[in-house]
Amino acid sequence: MFDVMKDQFKIAYQERTNVSIFDKKSFLRLDIKVADKKREQDVLNNAIKERILGKELYVASLEYVLIGKIIYMGFIDDIPNSELLEYQDIVDFLTLFHANREKINLAFIKKKIKETGLETTLNRLLKITF
Questions:
Q1: Using an 8 Å Cβ cutoff, are 120 and 70 in contact?
Q2: pLDDT tens digits for the chain (130 residues)?
Q3: Distances from the Cα of 30 to the Cαs of 2, 23, 52, 97, 126, in angstroms?
Q4: How far is Cα 114 from Cα 82, in angstroms, rounded to an integer?
């Protein structure tokens, strides 16, 4: 059973932003993003059908999740190396990337990130080891 607040959902839809929906019976949280940009439509067109808690849902591929995290971070050039791991988005990216390294299509990620102009962010993230 998901905890959905209709007003929050309507506002997110009207403002073309996102809304989080929490499952009352588990730790799951669904982040729903209104897709109104070409890049977002690309994610939807390439979504993977998964069965979660008995329901079929379309979810972004791991590559698109990682790409989305980079886009959300933006440029990280001004963050000192000593502070990089203090940012949860960076830790999330690194955790997902390294836990799934063998499955990830890095060439695809590099191609898509080049389209956004965030190659320096991706390259810096790929150099971080922990």
A1: no
A2: 555 667 777 777 787 777 777 777 777 777 777 777 777 778 878 888 888 777 777 888 999 999 999 999 999 999 998 999 999 999 999 999 999 999 999 999 999 999 999 999 999 999 997 6
A3: 9, 8, 11, 20, 27
A4: 26
DSSP character string of 36-91: -SHHHHHHHHT-EEEEETTEEEEE--HHHHHHHHHHHH---TTS-GGGGGGSHHHH
H or E stretch including 110? helix 106-116
* Tokens coding 123: 């390259």
pTM: 0.75
Task: Name every residue whose Cβ is closer than 8 Å to that of residue 52 and which is 6 or more positions away in sequence.
Answer: 28, 59
